[in-house]
Every structure is written in structure tokens, then in C-alpha cells.
Amino acid sequence: MGKKYYQHPTAEIRDGGKYYCTYCNKEIPESMQTEWPCTVSVSQPFDSEIEISVWNCQAKVLLKKTINNREEHLPIAEAMQLTPAETTQITQYAEQSVEAVGMINQSGIYPPNDALVKYINDLKLIKAPKVNPQDHGECAACGKEADLTDGFLCETCYRKHE
Asked: Residue 88: what are its φ and ψ, rounded to 5°?
């Protein structure tokens, strides 16, 4: 799926504008996202395309997409036109992901586990999401910037998986 990263909770600016995590005291980028964990990071990394939003003890998987140069967070069940069985499976994986690093009764944003990422990646190859066919962004298969024929894949990759 997307690039894996760990989120640092807070930073302070010092040494001429450099960002330093206030927990691990290491220099970090302005995004506060690194390939290595902070001392207080959750055990599994976040994914740049998938996140789990927990509210009111319910886990909702959101797909992060760049649509017309704007980042959107789309509920995956709607974006990919999932069947009830697929939605149930996604929800089970999401709850397992949350329980691995936190609690379902604690609202927040959680990272997906490998099983959820793999399941979504497999679904992307067979599902056509409800998005404007004129969308432009990064192809989920090859990573190239292109017009996305189905919202996820460039025309070349889309034809390979038809």
C-alpha cells in the first residue's frame, strides 16, 4: 500500500528552525513522521493511504486519496462499493488493528495491521471505487502520477488487472 511511517506526538523548534521530538529528542521532519519509531510510538507503523478512525467504539477505515490536488479521507466501504460481507471483513480487520495498539473504546486515529492492508490491496485490484474518472493522482499499483481510470490505477495498470 502506501509508505509506512511512525508519528511523533509533539515537536519543538530549535537550532535555527529544526524540529526535535519532545519525547525521543531526535531531529524529525516538519510532518513529524519518520521511518523509525519514537519512544512513545505505537508498535505498528501508520500507512500513508489507510487509517482507522475510532469514534463511539466503532472503527471506520478511511482511504486517503489525492483528488484534484486535495487530500481526501473517504470511508472505504463507500469509496470501493464494498459488499456487506467485505465491509464486515474490513471492520473485523480494523478492530484487530486497533486492539493491537490501543482500545476500541478510546477514540482516535489508528494504523492498519498488515492483514488489513493486504485485504484492501487485494480488493483494489478487483473493485472500482465511486470517484470521478477524471481524477489525477498516484497510481496504487505502480506509483506513477497519472490520470486514474478507476480512482486508484493508471490506465496501463488498470488494463493489466481487467
From this structure: -60, -45
- CA torsion through residues 24, 15, 31, 27, sign: negative
**In the chain, domain spans:** 4-34, 46-128
Q: How far is CA 157 from the centre of its chain?
A: 21
Q: What is the pLDDT of residues 86-100, one digit of tens each?
A: 999 999 999 999 999
Interacting residues of 92 by C-beta distance below 8 A, sequence separation 6+: none
Rounded distance between C-alpha atoms, residue 59 and residue 111, angstroms: 11
For the record, the C-alpha cell of 139 comes out as 497510481
Phi, then psi, of 61 in degrees rounded to 5: -85, 130
- pTM of the predicted structure, to 2 decimals: 0.65
Q: Is 39 exposed, middle or buried (0-12, 13-18, 19+ CB in 10 A)?
A: exposed
Q: At which residue does the C-alpha cell 478511511 appear?
A: 62
